[in-house]
Amino acid sequence: MADKKAEKLAEIKRHFGRRVMDQARLVIQTWQSLDDVLWNPDWHQEFVQHCTKLNTLASRYELDGLEQTAAQLIASLADTQPNKPPNSERLQALSDHVHLLIEHSARRSDSDDGRQSLGGRKPVYVCFADQTLSLALCEQLQFFGIPAQAIDDDEALDHVMHHRLPAALIVGTEFAGDGIQAARAAQNMLSTPIPVFFQSASEPDITMRLEATRANAVYFQEGTLDIGLLVQGLSKVYNFRAERPYRVLVVDDSRSQSLYTERTLNQAGMITRAVNDPMTVLEALQAFKPDAVLMDMYMPGCTGIEVARIIRQQQVYNTLPILYLSAEQDVGKQMDAMDQGGDDFLTKPVASDVLIATVRHRCIRHRSLKDQMIRDSLTGLLDHNTILDALKQGITETQQKQQPLCFAMIDIDHFKAVNDNYGHPVGDRIIRSLALYLRQRFRATDSVGRYGGEEFALVLPNTPLEDAERLLNEVCAGFARIDHEAGGTPLKTTFSGGVAAYQEGMDASEMSQAADQALYQAKHDGRNRVRRA
Asked: Which of the four, 140, 174, 272, 454, has the lowest number of CB atoms within 10 Å?
């Protein structure tokens, strides 16, 4: 009786938790839509309402962290106007509060078996002719925090689609006789199609791929299903963008023109800073760290071309987009400006939507290039040098804020035997799978990197040692249950980990050595476990 009562209370708690997370998801998604819809009264009213409801729900169910963050959002919104975007300082504050919501939602325990997912996630529907395969895949997706439901046939798919729309469909081409047509029929009446992940045992021809595309295929895998690649694709469907607002440096000697440009970009949630004296641009670049520079062509004392050439002389700004915004009409002079350090040329007067779209696309590309430079090509995690830089930065911040900091090292057990027995492609799949698993289980503010080979490292700010050890042990137990495809044979593997907490006076080298020693102890104690320094 006591067990049933405890189970019922736990289910009620999960239900209330999902309600609050659903509301937090609405707040996050509404904020993220700002760069598309721009600041307007309807958007403003909707955002305020979502924040207010989140504050009420979090207070009712005593979720103090979410309640406090929602209250901060409401306070920041109090001084804003529905029909006029706030300045960059206020936008930055709003963005910071939204990112706190993402942090509160982004770390979850492995012990809940996927029942409490990020932001009250919609399920994915798994549709294969082989129900054993469907059920096994659902179980594997749960380990990655992706709620999944196996579907028997096309009638069952039609029924659940009317009951609740999924985040995505995973469909075998043999499902219900023709999986592609079944997927297409299931969403015929939808105004917004649902992404579909197809799998075919045999190699699909161009006709099959065309039909899949018309059914809104975003992914088509042939042969044995690779769970790692599938989860990687699904992660994009569920992703709450952790991107900070784009930052644009506006270089223009006219205060009125720079103010107009700033306000236009602020509508899309971009953070701006104006430089009216071009001779101070280097100091502004270093302090502001923009994603793009929007610059007038003709200014007193120097031209925009000269400023662009000065910027390009420094390697650190080699990929920084420079866009000219000028009244110059001569196409030859425009081309010359771009030949000498510029990336784009916008002629005044420019429509606000064109200005926003052009700047946004340049910022997106810039961040993408920067991201590729600091990430491991196989896993997409931070590379060795960058994760150590994150540790150094974490130490600096923990000294300033007097908060706990932990550093963990992870090593896949018996990895050489995996490569020897199954081949390096299987080993690579396991490395990718662990990378995805770690990214699913830790917060946006936690730094996850590939230290080298089969070793990984994590920087966990504001995390006490006891919490870090518990989380890593949960992740360790969960990863051990995942099946990895090895030539049609399911393969399970484990990892060992060591975690160290920052102590006064420690540097990055000492923390990594302490975590490495704890990892060695975990290996010595039998592997598939985590030890603290």
From this structure: 174
For the chain, state the CA radius of gyration: 26
Rounded Cα–Cα distance for residues 381 and 377 (Å): 8
Q: For residue 500, what are the contacts with CB-CB under 8 A and spacing of at least 6?
A: 406, 407, 408, 465, 511, 512, 514, 515, 518, 532, 533
Indicate the SS3 state at residue 489.
strand
Strand ranges across the sheet with 196-200: 148-151, 124-127, 168-172, 196-200, 217-222
- pTM comes to 0.73
Dihedral through CA 259, CA 261, CA 266, CA 269, nearest 10?
A: -150
- Residue of 313, 269, 274, 306 lying closest to 293 (CA atoms): 274
Among candidates 265, 264, 271, 292, which has minimal Cα distance to 362?
Answer: 292
Q: How far is residue 248's CA from residue 233's CA, in Å, rounded to a whole number?
A: 31
The span from the CA of 245 to the CA of 329, in Å, is: 32
- Give CA–CA dist 320/32, Å, rounded: 24
Q: At 525, which amino acid appears?
A: D
User: Tokens 């839509």 label which residue?
Assistant: 33
Question: What is the distance of C-alpha 1 from the center of its chain?
Answer: 43
* 218: enclosing H helix or E strand: strand 217-222
Question: pLDDT per residue over 53-88, tens digit each?
Answer: 999 998 888 777 888 999 999 999 998 999 999 999
The set of catalytic residues is 454
Query: Which candidate, 300, 287, 299, places its Cα nearest to that of 324?
Result: 299
Residue 249 tokens read as 């440096």
- Determine the Cα–Cα distance for residues 261 and 263; give it in Å rounded to an integer: 6
Instruction: Give me the residues paired with residue 471 across strands.
Output: none
What distance in Å separates the CA atoms of residue 179 and residue 200, rounded to the nearest whole number?
A: 10
Name the residue type at position 417: A
